[in-house]
Each structure stands twice: as C-alpha cells, then as structure tokens.
Amino acid sequence: MTGSGGRALRLTILIGESDLWHHRPVYTEIVHRAHAAGLAGASVFRGIEGFGASSRIHTQRLLSLSEDLPVAVVVVDEEQRVRAFLPKIDELVAGGLVMLDACEIVRHGGQESPK
After folding, report:
1. Which of these, 69, 30, 71, 28, lies nearest to 49 by C-alpha position?
2. What is residue 40's three-state secondary structure?
3. Shortest CA distance to 12 belongs to which of 105, 99, 94, 82?
4. Average pLDDT in the 40-67 region?
5. What is the model's pLDDT at position 52?
6. CA distances from 21 to 18, 29, 47, 49, 65 (A)
7. Burial class of 40 by CB neighbour count within 10 A (0 to 12, 13 to 18, 19+)
8. The pTM is what?
C-alpha cells in the first residue's frame, strides 16, 4: 500500500481447514496467489469453533469434530487492487464465504512512525 494510511478494502474468505486445491490447502493457495498479485499482505487465522453452510458445528474441544476447523484468510489493500484479485480466487472458494468490508488503515507496520 502507498502512503501511511487511509481508506482500504478488507477481503475476508471463510473456508474449512481441510479444503484442498490440487492436494494443497486452499488457504495456502489464496495466500500464494495474493503474494503473486502483489497485494499488500494476507494472513490466515484458524478458528477454534464454528459452522457454515452444512450447519455442522466444528470445534477444537471434541477430537472427532476438530478435523475441519474454520479458517479465515484476510487481505487488506487498496480497493481496486482487492477487487482485481477476486477473479483469481473464484475457483478456490466454491464452498466458502467471501466478504468485502471498507476499512481505514491507521498504521502500517512497514513504515516508519512520524517523529
């Protein structure tokens, strides 16, 4: 991202931890595609409990249900860059949820603080 802050768009993709794309976790593929697209950054967060379209609750507390915990992939960048990235993930998230939220960057860790 350019500048020290400002308006941005947050892309959040909710998928299952066990979702695969060509024998590779979908969340890994999304991060690698975001990196190749030159986006500012992407992070993956593993949930401890949740449910999705199947209405089946997945939880870390029960061993038998902990095989497909929820995962959130979050990408934040300038709006046009995030929107241009969306077609690159269409084939990956057939069973997931894709959300866009306007946000404001108040500090970017890669830049020096003003004195």
Report:
1. 69
2. coil
3. 99
4. 74
5. 72
6. 10, 7, 20, 23, 22
7. middle
8. 0.82
Nearest to 74 by CA among 16, 25, 9: 9
pLDDT (tens digit, 9 = 90+) per residue, 11-23?
999 998 989 999 9
Q: Which amino acid is at 38?
A: G
**Residue whose tokens read 């929820």:** 70
In the DSSP assignment, the letter for residue 114 is P
Residues in the chain, how many?
115
Q: Which residue has the higher pLDDT, 70 or 109?
A: 70
Q: Which long-range contacts (CB under 8 A, 24 or more apart) does 108-114 make?
A: 108/1, 108/4, 108/5, 111/4, 114/4
Which residues are CB-neighbours of 22 under 8 A, at least 6 positions away?
A: 29
